Amino acid sequence: MTTNEHSHPASSALSPEHTPRLSWAGLAPDVYKAMTRLDAASRKGLDPVVAELVKIRASQLNHCAFCLDMHSKDALAAGESVQRIVQLSTWEESKHFYTPKEIAAIELTEAITVLTDGFVPDEVWENAAKHFDETELAHLVAAITTINAWNRFAVTTRMVPGHYQPGDLKH
Q1: Going from the N-terminus, what domains does the chain have, and what CATH number goes with each?
Q2: Which DSSP category does 89 fall into?
Q3: What is the pLDDT of residue 1?
Q4: DSSP character for 158?
Q5: Which of 13, 75, 116, 159 could lock 52 by a disulfide, CB 3.0 to 4.6 Å apart?
Q6: 51-60, pLDDT tens digit by residue?
Q7: Is the dihedral of CA 139, 99, 4, 15 positive or negative?
Q8: What are phi and psi of 162, to 5 degrees?
Q9: Exposed (0-12), middle (13-18) or buried (19+): which is 17, by Cβ within 10 Å?
Q10: pLDDT at site 117
Q11: Which residues contact 56 (CB under 8 A, 6 or more apart)?
Q12: Please, are residues 129 and 33 in contact by the beta-carbon 8 Å criterion?
């Protein structure tokens, strides 16, 4: 098969879609609204390309299919390339697709998302601080923290990926 050929099984051959555990946004609307406001506030002054890369990378790390579907589609709709989205999961071997500033944001996303060492390493923080002024850095930390919260809501409640269309939700 070449990259231009598409072979998709008939819908009946696909595995069935799972059922969400609950509609948390409908059951806790005040929490959902607060998250939406937090998300909007965290993005102020942050480059929208960097914001989407951060959301996609955190969602990959957290195995959040719903958010990965949403933010990949939003990034594509905003003009991001398929290649950069696909390469994001292996960015360390594909650095030539990203700017040094984007790499600093991706590194910081990984450090905040996967706190395996119990802290964000100084060298990761210092690299981010070289590429972002303090206000941008504060918003970047907020954006990373916010997408991690969204991921946890979606993964825990088993939100179903695949139905989102760009512009359906804004967070």
Answers
A1: 42-157 (1.20.1290.10)
A2: G
A3: 39
A4: T
A5: 75
A6: 999 999 999 9
A7: negative
A8: 110, -20
A9: exposed
A10: 73
A11: 68, 71, 72, 75, 85, 88
A12: no
46 contacts 136 by C-beta, under 8 angstroms: yes
Distance CA 158, CA 23 (A): 9
Strand, helix or coil for residue 72: helix
**First CA to last CA distance, the chain:** 37
Q: What is the mean pLDDT for each group of 10 consecutive residues in the chain (171 residues)?
A: 51 84 94 96 94 97 96 94 96 97 98 89 97 97 98 94 79 50
Instruction: Compute the distance between CA of residue 168 and CA of residue 113 in angstroms, rounded to an integer.
Output: 26
Residue 108 CA to residue 120 CA, distance in Å, equals 8
- CA–CA distance, 129 with 35 (Å, rounded to integer): 26
pLDDT tens digits, one per residue of 85-104: 999 999 999 999 999 999 99
Q: How many CA atoms lie within 13 A of 60 on its CB side?
A: 17
Q: Which pLDDT score is estimated for 85?
A: 97
